[in-house]
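Re: How this chain folds, sequence and tokenised backbone to follow
How to read it: Take the token row as a discrete description of the fold.
Start of record: The labelled sequence and token lines come straight after this line.
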Amino acid sequence: MIGIAGAGAFGTALAVALAHDGREVWLYARDPAQLQEMQHRRINPKLPGITLPQKLHLTGNLADLAITETVLLAMPMQAMRAFLASAPPDLLQKDLVACSKGIDLTTLQGPGSVMAAAGATGARAMLTGPSFASDIARGLPTALTLACACPRLEALQHLLSTATLRLYRSEDVIGAELGGALKNVIAIAAGIVIGAGFGDSARAALITRGYAEMSRLASSLGAKPETLAGLSGLGDLILTCTSGQSRNFTHGLALGAGTPAPEATVEGLATARAATRLARERGIDMPVTSMVARLAENDITLGEAVRELMSRPLKQE
């Protein structure tokens, strides 16, 4: 039996995919109004057109997740630390799988370290990679990375894989975390490039140089290069920087065009600030990430940011 904490689009999509594949799933929704609507209509408004299968059980009581063996944490990264601090002790003894992509802005920790600091005693895993909630919920073929540095990794891989959701396992938790987090920052920058009318050639250059930044910081923190070149790094980067379904890309698109940004959780904004601090501490050069962080904090205009990036000293690639 699988529990999922967080009834947003992604958490619900995973619940739908797992339940359709025969798993018994408990999905926790914090908002009573959302929970009532989902129970009554068997749909989540955040996933239009998707009917919730019968093996998907809805609850507003976190204690119900205690009857499950594995709990997926499907909330925004910046909410994870507070959620775990208030979670029942029984939940912290389960195998926990983080589905959040980001870096905690207060502690500069990834999901694995946040779970450890909260006192989690079971397996601590990370599920990440190129995926949109609507694709997973509709049963479209999707491949993700499941990272965990514990003996439970292969068992978790089999538990969470379905006929349409293929998981590849990795022991490089740091690489998987940073790939999933940092690609959101580059996606904002890619959206800015397209929104400002700079064209696809500029976007391709931006993605390439952004990937170099991701790799530099990840390597300095102990990640393996092959992890960043895999699904949780390059794969997720390509998807997020090129699709209008990406909330980070569409936010950047609005910034570049000078139009109001859609209301949505944009993990890349906080991650840009956290990554800039990490890079500064470690002496890592991350000009694109720094630009996004400064734009997010209104410390620089778009025109100034472009001029700064284009006037950097010429150097060997």
User: Anything to note?
Assistant: The two ends are 50 Å apart (CA to CA). Strands lie at 2-5, 25-28, 56-59, 70-73, 95-98, 124-128, 142-148, 165-170. The mean pLDDT is 95.
